[in-house]
Every structure is written in C-alpha cells, then in structure tokens.
Amino acid sequence: MQRTVEILGRKVRVEWSDAADRQLQTLAEPLPVEMELYFSCLIRKAVRFGRDAQAANFASVSPQLKVGFRPIMTKACNVKDFEVEPPVEDFPIVKPEAFVPKRLTIDYRNGKWSGDFFLQRNGTA
After folding, report:
1. 56: region left, alpha or beta (phi > 0 left; psi from -120 to 50 alpha)
2. In the structure, what pLDDT confidence band is assigned to residue 38 with cuts at 50, 70 and 90?
3. Which CATH number is 2-118 given?
4. What is residue 18's DSSP assignment?
5. How distant is the alpha carbon of residue 52 from its chain centre?
6. DSSP characters for 23-72?
7. Residue 23 φ/ψ, nearest 5 degrees
C-alpha cells in the first residue's frame, strides 16, 4: 500500500507492506511513526514507532497510521554516543523542510515494526 502525505510543505510517499497493513488493522489507535534525522559527529537516521515516536507534528496517512519528521542533535560530539543513546534535543534547523525525507517504507515482521526513509525518491539514503 502507499499514500502521499505532506510534512512541512513537502510531499512524502509512505509505503507499507501487506503484513504491516494487517497489523495496523488490529490497532485501537493510529500508530505514530517518526522519521528521525540525528545530527552529531555523523548523521544517522532512524524510524521510531509507537511511544518512541516523539515528533512535534504528525500527518495522517490512514485512519491507523500517522507519520512525522524530527531532526535532533546532541549538545556535544562524542564517538561514544554511538554505543548508547545520549540525551538529545530538537535541532532548530532554519529550513527543516529541506531535510524532510521523500519516501518512507514500513514493514511488520516477526512481531516487530521496521522502517527506513530516503532523502531521494529513488531509494538512496
């Protein structure tokens, strides 16, 4: 399945597998999904589901699915940040819409949600 939503004025194509769709239909509330772009020594991307999704705003994809985008940063750069999750804060990007991903994919396998997002439509990071 797929739908296009708008986040910060940018179109994002959201694709989810049949397995994900079946699991979504069992939920009592919409599943929040966050595309997190993490700025530190390196740039890391992550897809967060449920309570782990903490974006300020979400766009409704379907009655059971909503997605958001959250750029974050650490206060200092430390290589050890990649061994454990350091405290983070929202990253005050001047033009956050320039970083909104173009495509999000969602799946549900072996009892777990998984996802990835892409900054270009053709699927490259």
Report:
1. alpha
2. confident
3. 2.60.300
4. H
5. 10
6. HHTT-SSPEEEEEEEEESSSEEEEEEEGGG---S-EEEEETTEEEEEEEE
7. -70, -40
In this prediction the pTM is: 0.83
DSSP summary character for residue 17: -
Long-range Cβ contact pairs of 80-88 (< 8 A, separation 24 or more):
81/40, 81/41, 82/42, 82/44, 86/40, 88/38
What's the token pair of residue 96?
Answer: 């956050």
Let me know: does 59 contact 67? Beta carbons within 8 Å: yes
Instruction: Please count the CA atoms within 13 angstroms of the CA of 30 that sit on its side-chain side.
Output: 15
Taking the alpha carbons of 21, 106, 32, 119 in that order, is the dihedral positive or negative?
negative
Q: What's the pLDDT tens digit per position in 64-106?
A: 999 999 998 877 676 665 566 666 777 777 888 888 999 999 9
Domain limits, the chain? 2-118
Query: What distances in angstroms separate CA 12 from CA 46, 76, 78, 96, 105, one per listed residue?
Result: 16, 31, 32, 14, 11
